[in-house]
Amino acid sequence: MKKYQVIPESKLNLSHFDPDDTGNHKKTDKSKEKANVITEKLIGRLGELQERLYANGNRALLIVLQGMDTSGKDGTIKSVMSGVNPQGCKVISFKAPSAEELNHDFLWRVHQKAPAKGQIGIFNRSHYEDVLITHVHGLISDSVVKQRFNQIKEFEELLSESGTVILKFFLHISKDEQKKRLEERINNPEKRWKFNEADLEERKLWKNYLGAFEAMMAATSTDQAPWYIVPANRKWYRNLVIADRVVKALEDMKLKTPSAPAGINFDKLKIE
Amino acid sequence: MKKYQVIPESKLNLSHFDPDDTGNHKKTDKSKEKANVITEKLIGRLGELQERLYANGNRALLIVLQGMDTSGKDGTIKSVMSGVNPQGCKVISFKAPSAEELNHDFLWRVHQKAPAKGQIGIFNRSHYEDVLITHVHGLISDSVVKQRFNQIKEFEELLSESGTVILKFFLHISKDEQKKRLEERINNPEKRWKFNEADLEERKLWKNYLGAFEAMMAATSTDQAPWYIVPANRKWYRNLVIADRVVKALEDMKLKTPSAPAGINFDKLKIE
């Protein structure tokens, strides 16, 4: 896992990260099956740990998902988080900000959606869009981009100091893989509804987006809120890496069964 | 299912509904296992239908769960809804209102949490608490109770006319069953954290609560937003009944794969 983590305060070059990487697993159908079995077990464990997180109600987990179009943000949530009790898991899909939201600073709407104690919060896109799209399309100046990097770090520090563990995943696909996935949407009539013509325009800016992602992750990966570059060409490996990291984060909280309410003599309690 | 539905505009007597009922199923371990297999299949189907609800994004489903303490509201959500993609399913647990919420009408905070189009919303407790606790403890007058019944009906009519299907489940347990469940919490050190001494005080008001539930369901069960009295002494039967009803509601929406975006010549589309 460590090798996918973006080192704080260092330069980042995404071309050193292979989107097709499958770690110690071979790129065969057989190792895919094996990996899926491990992932299933991790998901089962995730369900247990989430119950305990909820019961304790003193910590929270925030998962941020970013990536190019078709990189598998929705698919990750479906594959890794279906099975978790929805009572303790909230997914927030950030769309283009509303007129009201635009009348506030860019973290205003995000802060409201931070996970409550006891909860897992998943940001499907996030405040990071405000240093990506805006940056690539030149809507904000370089100095504002830098300012926002700092504001994001301070915001995440606040959450972290308040008991929220933060994991940020960049789903790393290759440009060829995106082509395949877009073609699948175009050629399969059952999937055409997912097709968005605007994605083709954004695809033309692939290199600019890569650069923006690099700058953003280099500037905002911290020990408390690290970025992970997840090889995401193969969905099964992507799911495995993320399930593994999420389970580890919850294990590290060392959550116990909550203690009984104080001041009650349970042995003498009688129910009429 | 029909036999559990509260008929609009008619008197309701909960003593005619057996909390121990298991329908056509025997009360044996073997039929429990069989029922669980059916429930599992229904939950799988629920997952598929929810994906389609989300994809279409033009309808919503609101599930309201009410019942005495320990009646299994949390357990129902965990058993029936784990497996659903959390991206399309939001659970709202209504607690005692905040000072700000109390400065508004009782539906203000509830309306904000109504499920968006494409979503399943689950209310774990709901606006109905405001005609239950308040009624039983004499905090509001009979005329205000009646007024609120009407306000609730009009509110739910608004949601319904706006494309939201509403299902309301009363989890019906016997007083003896509650005793068992409270004792389990007391006697099992692993479960003691769930114990709330206030539940014992509310238990003393069992009959008053039954009366309040009867009045409330009789007054607010409508064709668009029916109440169901779910026999809930046996968790496996409770889960089966609810999973069955929820799947039927989604099937009735006749959701299809959404159509492709208009104005695109898919056959000529090329990706660079």
Characterization of the model:
The first copy, chain A, is an alpha/beta fold. Chain A has a single domain, classed as Rossmann fold (3-Layer(aba) Sandwich). Chain A contains 10 helices and 5 strands, in the order H-E-H-E-H-H-E-H-H-E-H-H-H-E-H. In chain A, strands 2-3-1-4-5 form a 5-stranded parallel sheet, sandwiched between helices. Chain A is globular. The termini of chain A are far apart. The mean pLDDT of chain A is 96. Chains A and B meet through helix 2, strand 2 and helix 7 of A and helix 2, strand 2 and helix 7 of B.
Termini separation of chain A: 55 Å
The CATH homologous superfamily name of chain A equals P-loop containing nucleotide triphosphate hydrolases
The level-1 CATH class of chain A: Alpha Beta
Q: Helix coverage percent of residues of chain A?
A: 40-55%
Rounded to an integer in angstroms, the radius of gyration calculated over CA atoms of chain A is 20 Å
Query: Count of helices of chain A?
Result: 10
Strand content of chain A: 5-15%
Report the average pLDDT across residues of chain A: 96
Pair of chains with the largest interface and how many residues each contributes: A-B, 43 and 43 residues
Q: Kindly report the spatial arrangement of strands forming the biggest sheet of chain A.
A: 2-3-1-4-5
Oligomer category: homodimer
Which architecture of chain A does the CATH hierarchy give at level 2?
Answer: 3-Layer(aba) Sandwich
Principal-axes shape call of chain A: globular
Number of domains of chain A: 1
